[in-house]
Amino acid sequence: MSVKDTIKKVTPAPVWNAARFAWDGILRSRDSWVAATHPWRRDSIRKLRALQDIHRGERCVIIGNGPSLNQTDVQKIRGEYTFGLNRIYLAWEEWGFRTSFYLSVNDLVVEQCSQDIMALDVPKFLAWRSRRWVQPQENLHFLYTTYTGPKFAQNASGRLWEGATVTYTALQLAYHMGFSTVVLIGVDHSFASQGKPNQTVVSQGDDPNHFNPSYFGKGFRWQLPDLETSEIAYRMARQAFEIDGRQVLDATVGGKLQVFPKVEFDTYFCGHSRV
C-alpha cells in the first residue's frame, strides 16, 4: 500500500475530500492563469464571447459516436445545427455532410489524430491542453477544460469541467451558444469493453464500442469509460437547462442513458422544426 493510500485509509472521508478539493483548486488556479493570459487562449476567449447566445431559441443535435448511429437515419438531421465529437469525421463522407461544429477534449484523440483534426474546415473546439499537438487557426477555439472541480459552465469562455465525457463539454458549449433545445443521438452510454474507469488501454483489434470498427482500431490508445461520473455530469446539465427553461432530449436509438427525457428519433425529427 502506498503512503497516499495509507493516509487516505486513516483520514476521515470529509477531511480527505476537503484536502483533495483544496489541492485540486490550487492546481487549477495555476493553470487558469496561463489559460487566461496566453495569446492563443486570449484569441479563443474573444471568439467564444462572440458566440455567446448566437443561437438563442434554436435547436441543435449533439452526435455521440456509439454503434447506434448505424441504426439512425442521420439524413433526417442534415439541416440541423450539429456537434460532432472526437472521430465523428470518419462518417462524413458516407453521410454526405459535415457537422456544424467539431469538438474534442481527449488528449489521446488529439495527439493521435492531430493531422486529421487540423484539416477539418468547420469551427473546431479543443481542450487548451491540445496546444501541444496543434497550431492556432481562425476556426479553432481553445477551451479551458479540467478533469476536476465539478460544475456546469454557462459561459464557455471560462473553465469547463469535462465530466468524464466529451458530450458533457458539448452540452456546456451548446448552452453557451444559446440553444434552447439539445437533442442527443448516438449517446449509447454502453460499452462492450470493460475495465477500470479512465484507464488507458491499447486497442487489440476492431472497435466494438463505436459506429466504425476503425474508430479506435488496432493500436489506438484510448481510455476506458467512466459512466458513473458521466451520469453525475449529465444530471447537472439537465438541471442547468431546465432552470433556464431549456431542455435536453435523448433520441439515441436503444440508448442506455436514463438521465434525459426520451424521444423517438424518427418521430421527433419528422414533426418538430429546429426553431
What does this protein structure show overall?
The chain is of the alpha/beta class and 275 residues long. It has one domain (38-271). It has 8 helices and 10 strands. The protein has helices at residues 3-10, 13-37, 39-51, 92-95, 107-118, 166-177, 227-243, 265-271; strands spanning 59-63, 81-85, 101-104, 124-127, 140-146, 159-161, 181-185, 200-202, 221-223, 247-250. The strands form 2 sheets. An 8-stranded parallel beta sheet has the order 6-5-4-3-2-1-7-10, with helices on both faces. A two-stranded antiparallel sheet has the order 8-9. Helix 6 packs parallel to helix 7 (227-243). The protein is globular, with a radius of gyration of 19 Å. Residues 15-23 have low confidence and may be disordered.
